[in-house]
Amino acid sequence: MSFRATSAAALLSICLSGCDQNNQTKMLQVPASEASFVAANNDAAIEWDASQGNDIRLNKIRPARDALVKEAIGSGDVTGWLATVKEVGQWDTGSAASLTLVPEGCDCTVETWNNGISDAGDNTQIATKSAMFGVVSNLQAGDQVVFDGHILRERSITDAGSITDPAWVTRFTRIEPIHSN
Known about the structure:
Largest sheet: 5 strands, mixed, barrel
Shape: globular
CATH class: Mainly Beta
Number of strands: 8
CATH superfamily: Nucleic acid-binding proteins
Helix content: 25-40%
Number of domains: 1
Radius of gyration: 17 Å
Strand content: 25-35%
CATH architecture: Beta Barrel
């Protein structure tokens, strides 16, 4: 496991919005699947930097990273992952919200599409009439959240983009803000 993944697996002392009456702190730990996902992405970026000038090595990095991600998340369902909000947006039609999160310790994002054309078939939209839209509408960049969802795929067209700035298309099923004590 990489240094970054080890750091990401550290315990966080945080209070979820549903804390008990005495505002007791709940300990959350980065799930093993998230730590492995983070390590796969971060280690691939390190390997990419070290492989510049050798196209044969560069061409092997994305498939190797994708295999490690598949091993980490299986079918793509993730539960209890910790992340920081990078961006909250709204589709140009106003019919849905878009959301970009940075998993704990990762040099990558998990995100919805930001328009209906790209989202066709993926159904990552956070519809304005959903309960999750109410939660997302109160978030801002820098907020910490815990989330559940389904990671569909990495969306970059080029190998370079996929490794140096990976963006994982995700259908979120739960977003819960984390409030520090």
